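TA notes. Do not distribute before section.
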Amino acid sequence: MLTKGDDYPLHQTPEPIAYSGTDRNFYDRYFFNGYNPDGSGFFALAFGVYPHLDIADASFCCIRNGVQHNLHASRELGMERLDLAVGPIRIEVIEPLKVLRIHVDGEGIKAELTFTGRAFPIEEPRFTFRNGPRTFMDYTRMTQNGHYSGWIEIDGERIDVVPGCSGTRDRSWGVRPVGAADAQPHSGSRQPSFFWQWTPINLESRSLFFHLNAHRSGKPWNTRAVIAPDGAGHDEFVETPDAEMVTQHQPGTRWPAGGDLVIDTGQGPLSVSFTPLQRFQMRGLGYTCARWGHGLNHGALAVEREDFDLAALDPLAPDMGNLHVQILCRVTTSAGETGLGTFEQLVLGPYDPWGLTGYGDTPVSG
């Protein structure tokens, strides 16, 4: 099956671009988020392609007045991976690795937003993790902070993003659980658990990035901090695995209520403190979402809008769909800098350092 991608020198195997190895869980995804300098106007987008499932899906979200408005779309891919549109949501690559544009127009939600990177994207360490004998994740991700221009309209009320609107975008590809879950469990492993923290930060003249995947014991299996000055190339970053986050928690939840990060820069420690401003639910983008989970089959084309009151959500809902959050935070550093960033967290199942033993309990320590 030949597709548009076959006219570009992008092949990694003797097969056409339409075929992505042999793992049915192969995916290719875009992610964006953004926010105004005062912490208002949070928005986010996710766009995924699942070649072996022959599906593409996308979601766009915006928070206004305590309500998270979510637009979901899914379609059959038709094996054409270069068609970056799913119903009312479209991505346009203007200048690879630097400028991209988001177009949204459906169900009363519209947006035109242009992202411009602040520095070259960082390449994170390859994420490879197994649950017992099965590969759970095996993917690469590049991440980039930047600024936005444009506007968002909700039910006829159009608001321009203000100068200085910033945020983060990433691109990841490889293997993750997508589509319908495997009905056959594997044997011989402990109770599954998953721990994830990610804090992309926009400061005045540079970006900070920290992520941590940890085992149930608390031992990291993938972690790194990166400092990227504005305009930096790929060989001008400060990168280190020596960073540690101490997390505060909202009582009765698995949501962070701030934190203190210390990064060993090689020239002394840099301390970074997080003060929460507002919460974004990642289920609006399909993450841990029962109905709009990534790669689920909704037929030729399906589009749906979903609005929910953030204050009314159950933080420990039985389906676990509310556990995955990004907390927009005001950030200060020991170098005298201030800025904004998101504190993303997802903790599923047991996690020994916090006293978590199952899926419905909450941390007893940081």
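Switch to the second chain here.
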Amino acid sequence: MIIWLNGAFGAGKTTAAHELLHLLPGSTLFEPERVGDQLRGMLPKERLAQVDDYQDLPSWRSLVVNTASALLAELPGPLITPMSLLSQAYRDEIFGGLAARRIPVRHFLLQTEETFLRARIDQRAAIDGDAVRTRYLARLPQYDAALPWLAGDAHPVAASQLTPRQTAEALAEGIRRGDGACTIVQTAPPRGETLAAGVLFFDAEGRVLLVDPTYKPGWEFPGGVVEPGEEPTSAAAREVAEELGLRLAGEPTPLVVDWEPPHPPGFGGVRLLFDGGLLPADRVADLLLPGAELRGWRFASEAEAEHLLSADRFARLQGALRARALGHPLYLERGRVITGPTTAR
């Protein structure tokens, strides 16, 4: 099990984690910041210059999951992890990766009023220098921006007027009660190229339905991986029924076949998109969301989808919209429509 202590920089996560070690037999401190330090020492400066923070490195997020998994293979656990994780996309990637390895996560938010937080930052700066104060204060806006989703995802612990020991005792009591449990779908990571099928639904304004998974970053199309021996159309119908409670009236119309190259650690594969047609308002009202798999849904215009989808998914959507307008399916590679050879002169 992972006990993830989240909060603002300077909220006292690490000191509380050290106290918590004494209250949870078998527990071990796991600091993902050390993984970041190692990457800083190994990656060339040209690569580091491309990111604002080591958390922006896909290798860091992957190593956090793999390191935690390796530690729990050696130790009884739990791992106590004090780490500010303020990007919801990174939270989904890391927690989803842990869930895929059957590692449960307890997510706690140490809430500290700004007055107390600034006082703690000043105390830390008196020991470690003014650079610490500057760095922590500069990240306060990032924490404030993350609060809307953090408040709904992590179990709060009001730590403003608590000592590190009292904070640890409050955390230990919450852990015993089962607080902070993250119910995330435990989708096994692919071991090779996959075949996936998605369905596009549209509203009366022509906007497309997108969903927000809890176990991977970014928005997606309703759908999922085709199981061995399963027909893609059946897989598409099964996935939208499981995810949204929607039943397709018949076989969906194919829109695009897209080959996606591998993006380590992903293996790539073939992606199919089908046309689910117009979704009437009364059916929209009946949409269901499995909390362990999807956080939310929304209809998005093409312009809005460009900001919600990854580049490869957005290119696939553009191909699907073009196919829908033309009235016949298209074949894509890397999201680019393959038109075939021109007639020789």
